[in-house]
Amino acid sequence: MKEPTASPEPPSSVPPRPAFAPRAPGPAPGQQPAGHDGLFAAAGRRLREMLHALTHPSHPATPLLADAPKRWQRLLPYAVALTLTAVLLPVTIQVLTNSYGLSGGIAGAVGAGQALPLLMIAHRPLQAWWIVFPSGVAGALFLVEPLHPGRGIWPWPAPTIIGMLFLLFGLGLRERRAALVGVWLVTVVTGLALGQYKPQLSDGTQVLTIVLGGAALIIGGALRERGEAQRALVAQETISVAERAHRTLLEERTRIARELHDVVAHHMSMITVQADSAPYRISGLPEAAREEFASIAASARESLTEMRRLLVVLRSEGAEGERAPQPGLDRIQQLVEAAVRAGVPAELSMAAELAAGPGKPAVPQAVDLSAYRIVQEALANVVRHAPGAQTRVSVRVEGADLLVLVVNGPVADPVSRVEAKGAGGHGLVGMRERVRLTGGTLDTGPLPDGGFRVAARLPLPAAGAPAGQPEPPDGSAPPDRPPGPDGPPFPDEKDAPAP
């Protein structure tokens, strides 16, 4: 007995879709397909946003001009609102009573509803509009019976229109665009509806009110957006200035680190050479001493390697390392000569033994390099900001400090902004960093005659202290501060008083 076989399926006109074929893209779950449904959905979303803006103020109940620097500016919106209310309240009641024939009670209630909320313009203009506008509509309905054609403007009397324009202007200064568009649309629909309700009483005043109200909203909104843009620009400029100053500080510290690497690397190289050559220069060294010198040389080489790796990290991309020796006091004369060639009548006062010679004091290389950089930056600022000004550079040893002074007189011709562009005082940041590095003090500032002074006091090592390691009396680097009560850093500079 044969088993029954399944009957074949009838052929289909649609070819089967492979299992790996991509599925045609369709609308996501809950998403409307493109077309007129999407347009209606967008319109509904805009309408909901507008209704939310009309019922929820965009700003807290803070007074207008609350951030103004002067008190009279902060009180100005309240003064305007109080004056407007004090004028419009009696005028509205009198106009409704005498010109439109309303009873005193109704005229007082309508006038109070239209004028008293104007006191809220300074801090709650949207809430005030929700009171003033319905009061204006109610007043228009009360005016239907006693008003005869041609006897007065309708649907809103002149005081009501004036108060509404002030209120719309205040709304433009506080609320976002969605709320302003919603207020204007409500005004348009209400005005046109009232005009169709009693066409014999309407004289086109509602159309003029719609146009003037739209203008008040546009002007107020434009002023608000302009103020917000200016505040955002000021905030961005403040952030940019702070970031630029921070970046300049980091760049100067990186530069100082690179220069210090060269200074320290020189000493480490000397230690390596002396430790390697000690067994050959000194005869009869025990084996322990030879091993100790070898260990010192190996440690010095390892330190040099680590410093070179650090220098690679610190050096900016594409920058090449300097192969020339680091400058010092012996090259300050060249700086002064370069300033003279640039048109600055500069003169140098420095003892000969500071530049070179067997009697040169023990100046650490960090102090030597910092003094050179301070003079270099000070002369560059003179060339940039005070070209042609008489300048004096003084470098000398006073007690346990190296004193560096650069004083320039007033400039004959004012420097244009274009000539001084890009020079925002960043050189002073580098000076302060170098002075802080050596544990000294820096005093900078303008002079009474219009000049400028840069005075730096860099401590030198005490007798018997190793060169290159100056330490302040308290064992830590002092903060950057002007000289104390002991007197100015340069007593003999009579024409350079402290600023």
Automatic annotation (TrEMBL):
Catalytic activity: ATP + protein L-histidine = ADP + protein N-phospho-L-histidine
Residue intervals of the Signal transduction histidine kinase subgroup 3 dimerisation and phosphoacceptor domain: 252-317
GO MF terms, alphabetically ordered: kinase activity
Residue intervals of the Histidine kinase/HSP90-like ATPase domain: 370-461
E.C. code: 2.7.13.3
UniProt-listed InterPro entries: HATPase_C_sf, HATPase_dom, Sensor_HK_TwoCompSys, Sig_transdc_His_kin_sub3_dim/P
Keywords: ATP-binding, Kinase, Membrane, Nucleotide-binding, Phosphoprotein, Transferase, Transmembrane, Transmembrane helix, Two-component regulatory system
Sequence ranges of Low complexity compositional bias: 455-468
Regions of compositional bias (Pro residues) in chain numbering: 7-30, 469-490
Region called Disordered, residue ranges: 1-37, 439-499
Domain of life: Bacteria
Enzyme class: transferase
Transmembrane segments: 75-96, 102-121, 128-147, 153-171, 178-198, 204-223
Keyword Nuclease listed: no
Protein name in UniProt: histidine kinase
Organism: Streptomyces cremeus
